[in-house]
Amino acid sequence: MDDKLMLMIPGPTPVPESALLALAKHPIGHRTSEFSNVLGEVTQNLKWLHQTQNDVLMLTTSGTGAVEAGMINFLSPGDRIIVGCNGKFGERWAEVGIAYGLNVEQITAEWGKPLDPQQFADKLTADTDKQIKAVILTHSETSTGVLNDLETINRHVKNHGSALMIVDAVTSLGAVNLPMDDWGLDVVASGSQKGYMIPPGLGFVAVSPKAWEAYKTAKLPRYYLDLGKYRKSTAKNTTPFTPPVNLIMALHTTLGMMKTEGLEGIFSRHQRLMKATRAGIKGLNMPLFAADEFASPAITSVAPQGVEADKIRSILKKRFDIAVAGGQDHLSNKIFRIGHLGFVSDRDILSAISSLEVALRELGYEGFTPGGGIAAAARVLAE
Amino acid sequence: MDDKLMLMIPGPTPVPESALLALAKHPIGHRTSEFSNVLGEVTQNLKWLHQTQNDVLMLTTSGTGAVEAGMINFLSPGDRIIVGCNGKFGERWAEVGIAYGLNVEQITAEWGKPLDPQQFADKLTADTDKQIKAVILTHSETSTGVLNDLETINRHVKNHGSALMIVDAVTSLGAVNLPMDDWGLDVVASGSQKGYMIPPGLGFVAVSPKAWEAYKTAKLPRYYLDLGKYRKSTAKNTTPFTPPVNLIMALHTTLGMMKTEGLEGIFSRHQRLMKATRAGIKGLNMPLFAADEFASPAITSVAPQGVEADKIRSILKKRFDIAVAGGQDHLSNKIFRIGHLGFVSDRDILSAISSLEVALRELGYEGFTPGGGIAAAARVLAE
Fold this sequence. Notes:
In chain A, 43% of the residues lie in helices and 15% in strands. The first copy, chain A, has 14 helices and 13 strands. The radius of gyration of chain A is 21 Å and the shape is globular.
């Protein structure tokens, strides 16, 4: 049905009407006091969202550009870094490191399993001459729906003392507690089409004073992604390069909505959405790809047995105008991923689970009690 | 007056209503066949606009990011490059080269004057052992309103035989004839908030086969700005990283409008807008900052005598809701810049010139025949 699409992919996520209308307003000049005022408010609200007093900078990039900026501004050729890899995005940051001539060591886990914090501890403890310059971790692995144990891994990094903790928070920021200052994270990078509830086109990088110290001697080349330029401009409520004015106006709107809901409200809503989704999937007797203990509050991956993942996706799309994501790389057609990140309500989960029941019936998969998915999801939502 | 702003800065430029409404549509998934179809059409239309069969790639960046990508993908540390500098943007590309450890030689001219093609010829002819790897030229210098003689300078580059011709076409593409294939340009970079008639947030880089040859051995590090990734994805009507879906939908709309108008129509309109603006300014007895022979069809800079540029801008904004740009760097408050690029009609020029007359009167500047600006502009438009 035209205009009826409901996005339940892990990004772009649904955009509220007020943000869509902000996008449709004619751009204003980006070197005006009106725009500076908006930038000033946006920057304050970004700090609130990151639970930080640190700089939070905005770049015209996708999330990948933001994470790359968060790496290359603080490192020099040959620097030894540890990258946690248990999915497509962790692997991407290893590729970035290699592209820039860094000495990349990977700590890996099977896709769908979490990284083992002890492996980080071992490497960091063994590094007595402090050659490890940074640890890069994908907090919520978008490709699998696994939430890595950032808090513990970061504690090991703090014990090391000199390595920077660089976090890909692309699908965790605005979904799960990520207190940058309390935990002492050094770099937190994210993208607009996720918890921020606006379309893609903006990247964000928050930077600690310790990371700025490293910046002073970091030699990897950069210009457009040089965060020093963004820092200088942001302090004056402006931007080094022409910013995506319309997206920033939309962001101004959604950050206001987020402040109204409050961090506690946002986090508990995502917990509830995750639990209801997982209960619903279990109620349909479908295997979840990631275990409960390390499930991402942003994405739930389902690994259907006896029925193809892409056939389920196809019916959800054609019959119910619900877009869910497929598996990436070797997980193609093995899993499907339900995004419940950002502008998502309890009702959306009920729509997804009940539509999924119809899709499974159509495909002849009947290994569940009729209504069992909704019964289980409803139990969570009624709590 | 609320909502009455008329943008006459050199970017963001005015956005047509149909493009604004496209922006306001809910994003769709970027990994869908619907979006691939849009990308395919957009890519074909970008080739038409660039008058090329070469790859034209889209990046989520500002224009600066696009030009930087257009440089760093084809060069290695220490490479000798020539950068033409006669304004803020030329100087920026020299800074990019220096940031990446290139051996940057500048050919300069005073801001407001064009670069001398003979100086390029001299350096290129003297380079008998072919050490010059690229020449970087800003076609239309946005900071001054000067159009550099790309056609002649490019001819000297072709005579050299091995150097790449890299063009910053940010404010020339879609305003003046720029036949990439006919001229044999190697890299043409631009940004969305200019002739494309959409808001900022997208960068474009067109790449010749000769530049792709250089890419094979180019050693400057890059990942997010690695054009090889964009080339591979674009060939499959997809993108390497999450693209700004809404902006691409708006671009799909405006490229359609451009095709309807036709390249000849677009170029002759910009010529007429430029001539009418310049005639109007002369009719108000105000000095133009760049001479007629090398005036940009996108931007007209005015260097008022006996009245401050910023006071004029302030009245235009407050009384008439017309935003014109100020001077940059040492030209601050010395010049103002009228953008007439993209979605601009004859009527807009009449509004600007007539509002300017009122502003000058308010400021007590009376060195002109009343109505003289409009009389002169009208003469051009009635031709």
